[in-house]
């Protein structure tokens, strides 16, 4: 996400590393580079002007704390300006109203609106423990209602259909059902168009008037840059939006939509879509996104993913096994690979770790996914005895495993080498004080990171 923008801005800030002080010239050069990076990311021009002016004003009003370079100081200023640009604080859904809470979803065709309905329903069930009903008022797009029903079945929520071609009739009947059957939330999917038109606006305005939704969310395609922000503004002028959902941010999105939308519409981004799977929806935290853009990772989101997706029983079982001095075998390694895969693979994890942007660039997402699949195929082609006793895997066994997994013997050797490194690390962790030593090494690594990673404590003072 935002890889090009992140690399460009990080490089601009790194150019100040080692400078003794700010000067008009080096600030002018740096801000020129930042402005060009934002223009290339398709950020709206008024937003760029406001952003760079704020940074320049902040630099002039700050005194550099001794021992910190202008590059480090500027990172702090840019980070704070980015957080403010993105909305300062997280804007959660208003779920404190009397049920059924009505969420009306709007957006153009192709923005990922229907998929976002299913993702949001799943998020409400799993994260907020809500009973959710979904319905579709899209009577124009072929199979739109069938698509939502299929997705609803997949995420385990109730889909309500009405034998009608009148969007208002469908919406009101669904609201009646939600109220009668004590659903906590009703999510209403509306029709999308290829462009904004009068009929579309009149229809959704009527739905809004009659349903009086608690939340009206506009879904935009993050790949469309500042056009997404302008479309959201047009919808907001016709409809009192309460928030934005930005989709398709799992690729190298340029960032124009996310960076422009708050300033242009005045409405907060509430969720971001990070993939096609129904669990690929994240609440939007301005500080965390700013941290990702500056290449400083997003450890909090990574910890939350670990809490949600890692099998705690399996983790405890492995921890006990290692603490008792028992070996880490290939079956354990396989389980660890599956856990990492459930979190989006190595590329997704590296993106959220501080200082790992360069590593992630070297390890492309496609290559990482292929490597994961290959490693799992190799281990799955082994017998149970071979997984528990890797030392048994010699010449003839390697050839058999390679044939069974569609790989070469060199691939088997590479995996066994990686496993050996993991096994050694696990032995160190299992020893007394091993985890403490490992954490100390991580701290040394953090202290040795270049500009782009904020050191502990404040950098500036007024």
SSE layout and pairing:
Blueprint: H1 3-14, H2 24-40, H3 45-60, E1 63-64, H4 70-86, E2 101-107, H5 113-128, E3 132-136, H6 144-155, E4 158-159, H7 167-180, E5 185-189, H8 198-211, E6 215-221, H9 226-238, E7 243-247, H10 256-265, E8 269-273, E9 281-283, H11 286-293, H12 299-309, H13 312-323, H14 330-342, H15 345-351, H16 357-362, H17 365-380, H18 384-388, H19 395-405, H20 409-430, H21 434-447, E10 460-461
Parallel strand pairs: 2-5, 2-6, 3-4, 3-5, 6-7, 7-8
Antiparallel strand pairs: 1-10, 8-9
Word description of this protein:
It is a single chain. The protein is α/β, with parallel strands linked by helices. It has three domains: 3-86, Four Helix Bundle (Hemerythrin (Met), subunit A), CATH 1.20.120; 101-286, Rossmann fold (3-Layer(aba) Sandwich), CATH 3.40.50; 301-431, 434 Repressor (Amino-terminal Domain), CATH 1.10.260.30. Helix content is 58%, strand content 9%. It contains 21 helices and ten strands. The strands form two sheets. It has an eight-stranded mixed beta sheet, sandwiched between helices. It has a two-stranded antiparallel sheet with strand order 1-10. A hairpin with a 7-residue loop joins strand 8 and strand 9. The longest helix is centred in the last third of the chain and has 22 residues, at 409-430. The relative contact order is 0.12. Residues 64-68 and 438-462 have low confidence and may be disordered.
């Amino acid at each position: 996400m935002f890889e090009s923008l992140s690399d460009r801005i990080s490089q601009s800030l790194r150019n100040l590393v080692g400078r003794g002080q700010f000067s008009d010239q080096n600030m002018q050069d740096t801000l020129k580079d930042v402005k060009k990076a934002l223009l290339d990311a398709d950020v709206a021009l008024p937003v760029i002007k406001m952003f760079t002016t704020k940074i320049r004003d902040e630099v002039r009003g700050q005194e550099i704390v001794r021992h910190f370079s202008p590059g480090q100081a500027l990172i702090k200023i840019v980070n704070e300006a980015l957080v403010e640009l993105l909305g300062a604080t997280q804007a959660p859904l208003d779920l404190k109203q009397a049920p059924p809470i009505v969420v009306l979803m709007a957006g153009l065709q192709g923005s990922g609106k229907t998929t976002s309905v299913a993702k949001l329903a799943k998020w409400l069930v799993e994260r907020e423990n809500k009973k959710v009903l979904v319905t579709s008022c899209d009577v124009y797009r072929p199979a739109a209602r069938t698509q939502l029903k299929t997705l609803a079945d997949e995420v385990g929520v109730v889909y309500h259909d009405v034998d009608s071609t009148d969007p208002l009739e469908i919406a009101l009947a669904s609201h009646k059902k939600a109220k009668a059957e004590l659903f906590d939330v009703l999510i209403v999917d509306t029709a999308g168009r290829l462009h904004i038109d009068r009929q579309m606006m009149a229809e959704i305005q009527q739905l809004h008037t009659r349903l009086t939704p608690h939340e009206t969310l506009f879904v935009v395609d993050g790949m469309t840059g500042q056009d997404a922000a302008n479309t959201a503004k047009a919808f907001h002028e016709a409809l009192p939006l309460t928030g934005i959902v930005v989709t398709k941010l799992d690729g190298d999105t340029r960032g124009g939509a996310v960076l422009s939308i708050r300033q242009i519409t005045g409405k907060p981004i509430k969720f971001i879509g990070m993939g096609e799977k129904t669990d690929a929806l994240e609440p939007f935290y301005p500080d965390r996104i700013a941290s990702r853009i500056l290449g400083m990772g997003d450890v909090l989101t990574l910890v939350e993913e670990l809490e949600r997706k890692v099998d705690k029983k399996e983790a405890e079982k492995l921890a006990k096994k290692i603490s008792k001095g028992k070996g880490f075998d290939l079956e354990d390694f396989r389980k660890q690979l599956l856990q990492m895969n459930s979190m989006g693979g190595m590329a997704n994890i590296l993106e959220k770790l501080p200082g790992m942007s360069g590593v992630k660039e070297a390890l492309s997402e496609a290559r990482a996914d292929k490597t994961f699949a290959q490693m799992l195929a190799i281990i799955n082609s082994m017998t149970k005895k071979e997984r528990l006793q890797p030392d048994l895997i010699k010449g003839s066994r390697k050839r058999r495993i390679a044939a069974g997994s569609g790989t070469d013997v060199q691939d088997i050797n590479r995996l066994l080498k990686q496993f050996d490194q993991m096994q050694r690390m696990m032995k160190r962790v299992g020893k007394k004080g091993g985890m403490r030593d490992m954490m100390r090494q991580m701290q040394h690594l953090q202290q040795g990171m270049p500009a782009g990673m904020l050191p502990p404590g404040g950098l500036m003072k007024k």
